[in-house]
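ingest -> fold -> write
write: protein_1
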Amino acid sequence: MSKAPDVTGFYEARSGSIQYVVACPETGQCAIIDPVLDFDEKSGATATVEADRILEFVRTRGYHVQWILDTHPHADHFSAADYLKSRTGAPVGIGEKVVEVQKLWKDFYNWPDFRADGSQWDHLFADGEEFRLGNIPCRVMLSPGHTLASVTYVIGDAAFVHDTLFMPDSGTARADFPGGSAHVLWHSIQAILALPDTTRIFTGHDYCQGGREPAWESTVAEQRATNIHMSKYLTEGEFVVAREARDRSLPMPKLILHALQVNTNAGRLPEPEANGRRYLKIPLDLLQSPWA
């Protein structure tokens, strides 16, 4: 029985995101992880180019989509989970702590009628919950710090670590979003780095450090030995000081206020209004000012 899934990454350049198709080679059952719905903030246009590229790949491989999974409510792109569910019929899943993120952003967006109970997803995964992808055992690890709800999917020998670790030359993810914590992120990363050395690590973003080509696969051993943050900051205190200093220098993602109202609703776009058009709601003066 194989414990090594076939993993194919799809790089989305606009947001630097990596989307994954993870398949059991024996059964052809697959999961789609962190799919992107195309959105152009200048024109307000949406499209399904990235999601359709994944669907075509699944079709040509003869895979059957068993799950559509998000690791957390993303702040820099819209999730295509709802669109892919409509095309495949596969259930959508996310970590159960998403309800905490929903409650936070329900208040930010002043949505008194929004259901902040996670019911927009078909399944909410608990920390430590086990399931199978075809013949491959899977386990869910709660990995907060970047967000309250972040999870890692350990599928056979592969760990999909979302925005905790980047490629070793790029360090770790920020922890200054509402509900984030550098202290908590440190402990989440320690749990990931406690996995077997040969575990394949698949990251959620890559920003092509130094102009190199996009990359998204490493191992636990490589991360532990060469990650520019985790090999340098060896205590929680050192890491937190460095992470928080770095975060203070970063602008907010340009789509955070656009994306969270979609992604806390499982990738559903706002309902059309009386004129048939959909509208996003942007709260003013909510996040840190670039002039501060």
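write: protein_2
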Amino acid sequence: MPATSTTTSKTVRRGIAAAAALPLLIGVLASCGYGSQAEKDDAKTSASPAADTKKLSASEVRIGYFPNLTHATALVGIQEGLIARELGGTTIKPQTFNAGPSEIEALNGGSLDIGFIGPSPSINGYVKSKSTNLRIISGSASGGVKLVVNPATIKTLDDLKGKKIATPQKGNTQDVAFLNWIADKGWKVDPESGKGDVSVVRTDNKVTPDAFKQGSIDGAWVPEPTASKLVSEGASVLLDETDLWPDKKFVITNVIVSQKFLKEHPDVVEAVLRGTVKTNEWINAHPDQAKASANTALKTLSGKELEPAVIDPAWKSILVTDDPLAGTLKTESDWAVKAKLIEQPDLSGIYDLSLLNKVLKAAGKPEVSDAGLGAK
């Protein structure tokens, strides 16, 4: 396992939410998503609760995110007005998505300005646009991925051989990580079919709990809260992916921006980043309130909140962070190449952390690294 980039922002372990299945790249992976491809515009917009009369260069900013705990910064920052407060008279128009490709499509099509999204669709969108469409401008979340199994049939990692283990989608972030782990064990699996020494069963996170209860899978390498949902129904945690990384950190959610919007409205992007940095700091300082706020936002967006038995362990398993952990994104890309799921992408220029580092410096916080993949 590779070294990660140095995390210099304050982080806190938090729960991660459902469907963080992050489709990883190019051609064969272009249709990968987080389940449903549906997206919606939220009915309400978020204007600043503060009487800040400072006028920015855009009257509104369209921000996309997923209704799950992986995107806790967006959930809490919008719910609590922490991002809106930094925007003064500029209005937030939130949009929620259930799939990475649909959010990238919205960004490509000009109907979205800024988005919270996983590393795989970030890479996919960047490479497919030939480096012209988006930039990663901040981190948001790390961790929250676990291997959970039926304890009656799997007691050790070696017991996985010959078993059926679910991942969210072929080529998504968890699928690639599991294939890499299998390869490191010396076992063989065909990455296209999932057949081999372990049967990798690509299963939507929404149906994975039912598949587990019916006995059609023996376990799953999945993000939260799917992992905690399975544990609440009798599974046990055999491995936390966080423990496989040297610094126990790896990117699972980034903040991205349209290059056009970044060029035309850098003051708005900077204000949003001030809001995300302050949101992450607030989450760190008020963990219980933040968890409740995120669950309230989930109920508003999806009509259903997470049960304590699920949200409590899930919330603890994620790090909310400003650091994009750029070195780990490169590693996840290299794993996909190693698995022969993608061709080697050129990621140079995918990051532009200049505004984030400006915000961090003004707040008295250390700057973060782009691992040599920054815009020139």
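write: annotation protein_2
Confidence is low (pLDDT under 50) at residues 1-45, 47-52.
The first strand starts at residue 12 and ends at 14.
pipeline exit 0
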